[in-house]
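Table 4 source record.
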Amino acid sequence: MKSQDTPFEGGPMDGRVLPVLVGPTGHPPKTYRIPVPDPGGGPPTVLVYRRVPRGHSRRLGLVQGWKYRYDPDDRSGGKLRWPWSRPDATPSGKPDDANG
């Protein structure tokens, strides 16, 4: 398997560069989850990082590489989000309706 040295930005991993396995397309995963063990023996805390472009080329605007940015308020809960899925419900239990 191939890996790519990918920088991390923000959060506890700020400034570190880790080798991340790339998929068949040559891109690292969209989210990178790092479980951090609890010193008291409780459930581990999970740090979530999202893939963002590192930069773009001048002429064609192609992505030059990837980096991970810390996402402190991850709401995905580790579930896959399909385009045909229903939108997340608001705290009242009703679908979110922005139009009023």
